[in-house]
Design goal:
Structural class: alpha+beta
Strand content: 15-25%
CATH architecture: 3-Layer(aba) Sandwich
Distance between the termini: 23 Å
Number of strands: 3
CATH topology: Collagenase (Catalytic Domain)
Largest sheet: 3 strands, mixed
CATH superfamily: Metalloproteases ("zincins"), catalytic domain
Number of domains: 1
Order of helices and strands: EHEEHHH
């Protein structure tokens, strides 16, 4: 599995609490509840066929914004039995993949995204405890 080809780009990351992410989820997505992570991509993909793993040649190269609820990350780490570091890294990788145009609406897409998440977490040495 190849790595995502990257040029230079900018990503903004905000670490907040459940109240903060709930407010953003409500205000920007119309979903009135907390969540663990939000992604706000700046790039629009022309079609599903456009490669997601290409070097971005946009002049500004602003990929997007990521918002993570540390409060939820801590509780999910406890629930899944791994470290808070692994959970925050998982949420970051998951969100980055969204910024690259991946989604998980369909089963095949969800499987591909899970494989990419595990690939990058393994590259970081954050292997899932089984």
């Amino acid at each position: 599995m190849g790595e995502v080809g990257l040029g230079e780009f900018e990503v903004s990351v905000l670490i907040t609490d459940d109240d903060g992410i709930h407010e953003l989820n409500r205000d920007y997505r119309g979903i009135d509840r907390k969540t663990d992570v939000l992604s706000f991509p700046m790039l629009e993909y022309e079609s599903e066929e456009k490669p997601k793993d290409e070097i971005f040649e946009d002049e500004e190269n602003i990929l997007g914004d990521i918002v993570i609820s540390l409060e939820t990350a801590v509780s999910q780490a406890e629930e899944y039995g791994h470290s808070v570091l692994r959970e925050v890294c998982f949420l970051t990788v998951h969100s980055m993949l969204h910024l690259f145009g991946y989604d998980h609406e369909e089963d095949a897409d969800r499987q591909k995204m899970r494989e990419r998440e595990e690939y990058f977490l393994n590259k970081l040495g954050l292997v899932r405890d089984i």
